[in-house]
Design goal:
Structural class: mainly beta
Distance between the termini: 24 Å
CATH class of the largest domain: Mainly Beta
Helix content: under 10%
Largest sheet: 8 strands, antiparallel
CATH architecture of the largest domain: 5 Propeller
CATH superfamily of the largest domain: Glycosyl hydrolase domain, family 43
Length: about 525
């Protein structure tokens, strides 16, 4: 039976170059790095690089939401995917995972990564609905986010802004520390030529930071009102957010998002403003918006939330996010477009360039791309692809190593069982795993409302209206689920090699990219040889 090394084990074996950067691919690459590249190929992880000096969007699928990118020398570091995953690149197109700065998943909103005076910083927002003020209970996070905030200490306490720092992007990262700014989100940082540090937030709010970047000076104030778009545009809301400031050629520039990230396909956009002082006045670009979806007939919807970044050759780019119109359930994906500077000093996407084009790659080396999702659980540390519930205690629930994942069972059904989650990166894919149960436990794979697994006396592939089951006296089996854009097939195997089809299939009527290993009942479930393979 073919086995797969855990990703984290591979990453830990990769040597780090001076200054905390990861070595590029070369004839001297490590065996573990060669293995990682082969795993990406076998699993058919999507890649933008066409191999001929050109690329096609998106540059990062599945983990590309609400990205922020910084260049340090010839290396780019991006934080994306729920504010946890840190990725490394040298060409802005090929991205390899480094670590998860937040090892315990939380309700993290958009994060910002920066580098100053030899140290890396992450500013992010923790959204904790349990801390909502009584008058705001029942509102969604999006509804709360548009509430006005005029003081850092009196803002809605369910939005708490924190800072983490590290000497190297691979970590270790410090524990999140609150900076005492509540009710705002989407932090974006800048250091002035004089060395003063500032944070911007949604609604055009700004506050000065201490020199060490860990606390604030004074209070927040609104310095930017945003760009007034045409009244007949179909948007969700004004929703000024995701400010990303920079200093360039004597001006402060700021890219922001407007229009809302939900609702219509034409919501969300990227806008540019500039000023001689961070306190304003801010002048809006005559070329706004820098990106926007004009129609729901386009391939990419709700484009926005971007960072202006230059490469080692002095060319400029816009790293931002968008939703695929044929797979919006895949979430925000990372997009990249070239930028030109006009004679009057404004950045814009060149006329005639579109997100669907085949585009020439930025300058820089290819460090390899993609995060393998398969895991044989040989490492005694959980692979970074796995995520548990925000309120879970992984040390109590999961034991990994020696080719096994031992999961403590809980709940009476898959719906309330212990879970370990993973985000698929293909629209069509299949996953399988070896399952071993106890006398009072049940385990398997879940995708939305469907699951395949083993309980005492029977193996099953379950879809609510037509469950499949067959008598099974042993306590081990291999199960597989194939998800072909929402159409579900179930399989089983007694040896993990020869597979047989359960007679009835199903459908995920609300497509999802989330899948889980689960353990229900009492005792524990043991998993071995988790395998993922893209089919598109």
């Amino acid at each position: 039976m073919k086995t797969y090394r855990s990703l984290l084990g591979c990453l830990l074996a990769v040597s780090a170059a001076a200054g905390g950067t990861v070595s590029p691919l070369s004839a001297q690459q490590s065996p573990s790095e060669t293995h990682r590249i082969e795993q990406v190929r076998l699993e058919r992880i999507p890649t933008a690089d066409l191999g001929n000096g050109y690329y096609r969007n998106p540059v990062l699928v599945g983990f590309g939401s609400d990205n922020s990118v910084v260049r340090v020398g010839s290396d780019f570091y991006m934080i994306a995917g729920g504010g946890e995953f840190i990725w490394h690149s040298r060409d802005l197109v090929n991205w390899r995972p480094l670590t998860r700065a937040l090892t315990t998943p939380g309700r993290t909103w958009a994060s910002d990564i920066s580098f100053h005076d030899g140290r890396y910083y992450i500013y992010t927002t923790f959204n904790d609905p349990s801390k909502l003020r009584p008058e705001h209970r029942g509102l969604t996070g999006a509804q709360v986010s548009i509430l006005g905030t005029t003081s850092k200490s009196t803002g809605e306490p369910s939005f708490d802004n924190v800072v983490l720092s590290a000497d190297r992007p691979e970590g270790p990262w410090s524990k999140p520390t609150s900076i005492g700014v509540f009710g705002l989100f989407d932090p974006g940082t800048i250091v002035t030529p004089e060395g003063r540090r500032f944070l911007f937030f949604n609604r055009g709010m700004m506050i000065e930071m201490t020199r060490d970047g860990t606390s604030t000076i004074g209070d927040v104030k609104r310095v930017y009102e945003g760009w007034q778009y045409p009244a007949n545009w179909v948007l969700e809301c004004h929703c000024l957010e995701a400010p990303k400031p920079l200093f360039h050629n004597g001006w402060y520039y700021m890219s922001s998002a407007e229009g809302g990230t939900g609702g219509p396909a034409t919501a969300h956009m990227g806008v540019i403003a500039r000023a001689k002082s961070l306190a304003g006045p801010w002048e809006n670009s005559p070329y706004n918006p820098i990106v926007r979806s004009q129609s729901r007939d386009e391939k990419w919807w709700r484009q926005g939330h971007g960072t202006l970044i230059d490469d080692v050759a002095g060319n400029w780019w816009f790293m931002y996010t968008g939703y695929a119109s044929d797979a919006a359930y895949m979430g925000k994906q990372s997009m990249l477009l070239p930028i030109e500077w006009t004679a009057d000093g404004w950045p814009r996407v060149p006329a005639g360039v579109n997100a669907t084009d085949v585009l020439r790659k930025p300058a820089g080396e290819n460090v390899g791309h993609g995060m393998p999702l398969s895991d044989d659980f040989s490492s005694n540390t959980m692979g970074i692809q796995w995520m548990s519930a925000a309120d879970a205690n992984p040390a109590e629930l999961f034991t990994v190593g020696g080719g096994q994942l031992r999961m403590k069972a809980a709940g009476t059904s898959p719906a309330n069982a212990t879970r370990l989650n993973l985000a698929a990166v293909n629209k069509a894919y299949e996953v399988d795993v070896d399952v071993e149960i106890g006398d009072h436990s049940e385990g398997g794979i879940m995708i939305g409302p469907v699951n395949a697994g083993l309980r005492k006396g029977e193996a099953f592939g379950y879809w609510p209206s037509v469950p499949n089951a067959l008598p099974w006296e042993k306590n081990r089996i291999s199960v597989r689920i194939r998800n072909d854009r929402g159409d579900i097939s179930f399989f089983w195997s007694s040896d993990g090699t020869t597979w047989q089809h359960f007679p009835n299939g199903g459908a995920v009527n609300t497509p999802t990219r989330s899948l889980s290993l689960y353990a229900a009942g009492e005792g524990e479930v043991v998993f071995r040889n988790f395998r993922y393979r893209g089919l598109d």
